[in-house]
Amino acid sequence: MSSEPPPGSGQPPPEDDPFRKQPPPAGGSGSPYGDQPPYGSQPPPPHGGGGDPYGGGGYPTDPLAGMPPLADSGKRTLARIIDMILVGVVVWLLTWGFGVTEYDVDTDQVEYSKSFVQSLVAAVLFIGYDTFMIAKTGQTLGKKLLNMRVANLDNGATPSVQTSLIRAAVLWIPFAFCCACIWTAIAGGWSFFDKPYKQGLHDKSAKTVVVSTGT
Q1: Cβ neighbours of residue 39 under 8 Å, at least 6 residues apart?
Q2: 3-class secondary-structure state, position 104
Q3: Which ranges are annotated Gly residues under compositional bias (predicted)?
Q4: For residue 196, cis peptide bond before it (omega within 30 degrees of 0)
Q5: pLDDT digits (tens, 9 = 90+) for 164-179
Q6: Helix count (H) and strand count (E) of the chain?
Q7: Tens digits of residue pLDDT in 6-21
Q8: Which residue segment(s) compose the domain that 147 sits in?
Q9: What is the tally of structural domains in the chain?
Q10: Which residue blocks in 44-112 are alpha helix, DSSP H?
């Protein structure tokens, strides 16, 4: 039996992890100046001078080096819609089976308590779905269909259960209380404007990125 931890366990990814960042090709960057910067270039800033928004050190290697290209934000949105439809069907079946509907209208009263219960069930299922799927393979069904996956920003590996839970909780907990679709749109839509990593707010909280699988 292998002693190597499975992907997503929170341990450093094994050497044969297919999602591990690949080292740069031998021979360096191919600069005609060798190890010296070209004439007129500025020397790198001192240690701690930036580059990594998460405080990873000085003038460092690009965190995306050796990783697949970042996924298109439009495709990410479509994948999220697919996942919401799939999980939404399960939510509707569960709440319908237990007699919980979005709202019930009496002669002069609308009962919103059932609406909250339905939203709470939806948030729990979405969190569980996202956490399980991302920690297992880095892909929800929507992301798998559109050829993309979630990766740790620091090493490119499949996120751990803890990281996946943080990511899912930031995205879906507000779904149960207020502004359900609005918050989901803001958190996910943030990737359209974020630079340089195209992260949603949930990605920033978990330090993850979404990359193309290239297949």
Answers
A1: none
A2: strand
A3: 48-59
A4: yes
A5: 999 999 999 887 776 6
A6: 6, 4
A7: 454 455 555 555 566 6
A8: 73-98+111-212
A9: 1
A10: 73-97
